[in-house]
Amino acid sequence: MPTGGDDVIRCSFCSRTAHEVTSMVAGPEVYICDRCIHDASGIVRGDLQAYVPPAPGGGARRAAGRSRRMTPRQIKDALDEHVIGQDGAKRALSVAVYNHYKRIEAEEYLHAFDDVELEKSNILLLGPSGTGKTLLARTLARILDVPFSIADATALTEAGYVGEDVESILSHLLQAADYDVERAERGIIYVDEVDKLSRKGDNASITRDVSGEGVQQALLKMLEGTVAGVPPKGGRKHPEQSLVQFDTRNVLFICGGAFDGLAPQIARRLSRGQIGFHDGDATSMDPKDPTVFRHAEPDDLLRYGLIPELIGRLPVLTALDALTPADLRRILTDPKNALVRQYQKLFAMDGVDLVLEDDALNAVVEKAVRLNTGARGLRSVLEGVLLDLMFEAPDAHAGTVCRITAASITDGAPPVYEERKATA
């Protein structure tokens, strides 16, 4: 019969009613809700994974659980294998993720600081297009053992309008955690293209800025920490739907954006005019300086169009430098997932050994620099050069070595084909 002394069915563990949860499992005079089932299964899984035979003196299990956590240096070393340069951004992300682990485990030790509550430090990544912001986030997703999701801010609109609600960001994280609410509440969310949420103007308008300032305001509580109602399987909310209660206090938010047009604004602020008697002290900052975003301050973001409340909830500003030709050259060959290796794998599947000479790689970099799209320009150049070869390779060039020269990049000359040497 229903627990609690009334006619309402309640969970025997947490006393939630059937209307407050998604589902309720009934037993002999006992009920358990889906939230308690998730909590219990998480406890059991954690005990099975963390259990080690107890050692004399105790504390072995707790120490074993902490030993699996990656240190900031280990996280940065893993990022170095996939992302070229951007040491400052890597350090900031590594420390933020490491502290995120420690916030999760804070209740398990250091009881001398029980009255100290650790607050999260959300991060804002600034940098030109093609410098590796999204790549850093995707690489983190591969090396971390916490739920991780990437959301695009350009698809978000204020609640009640056509588009995705802000809560859809949490739906993606819930899906990444296999709908385990407790795990998702300790995850990390990367919000890309956050600069597209800037206000359209300083003047008041009779129309609402539903995809700009309206979304910024909707993000405030979520970044700081709130309990939001999330559709359990994604999609839009409707009155008949049972919502999952999602607490964002322990979710780490990393926001990124290209902030096109911010560099000249920073340069103007840093440059002192050459008027009057202080001509000798005049200094100037080139907006095309690769390190210009390192000098960004909250006031610059405020003038760009972010509201003060949002800036205050993203206390860590981390800049990504524009890529130099030397960086682009390393991106072609050095990372584990280097572009040249990707194309070599594609051609190897057709029986062709692809070789790009050093002069050809330098020519690719020169073309990519003129495109001014960062690392994305490298793929554009290679796609254009290799298009005809990829079309012909499966039929005409299987079993050969295809050598790309500098002339193939600059003048469109055909590649050099050689017979594959037999291996002993």
Key descriptive features of the protein:
424 residues; alpha/beta; Rossmann fold; Helicase, Ruva Protein, domain 3; 5-stranded parallel sheet; 3-stranded mixed sheet; 12 strands; 40% helix; 12% strand; globular
Major sheet:
5 strands, parallel
Tell me roughly what share of residues is in helical segments.
25-40%
Order of helices and strands: EEHHHHEHEHHEHEEEHHHEHHEHHEHE
In the CATH hierarchy, what is the class of the largest domain? Alpha Beta
The number of helices is 16
Shape: globular
The parts where pLDDT drops under 50 for at least 5 residues are 48-67
- Which fold name corresponds to the CATH topology of the largest domain? Rossmann fold
Description:
With about 425 residues, the chain is α/β, with parallel strands linked by helices. It has three domains: about 20-65, no CATH class; about 70-320, P-loop containing nucleotide triphosphate hydrolases (Rossmann fold, 3-Layer(aba) Sandwich), CATH 3.40.50; about 325-420, Helicase, Ruva Protein, domain 3. It contains 16 helices and twelve strands. The strands form four sheets. The chain has a five-stranded parallel beta sheet, with helices on both faces. A three-stranded mixed beta sheet has the order 10-11-12. Strands 1-2 form a two-stranded antiparallel sheet. Strand 1 and strand 2 form a beta hairpin. Helix 3 (about 70-80) crosses helix 4, helix 12 (about 325-335) crosses helix 14 and helix 14 crosses helix 15 (about 375-395). The relative contact order is 0.10. Mean pLDDT is about 80; it is low at about 50-65.
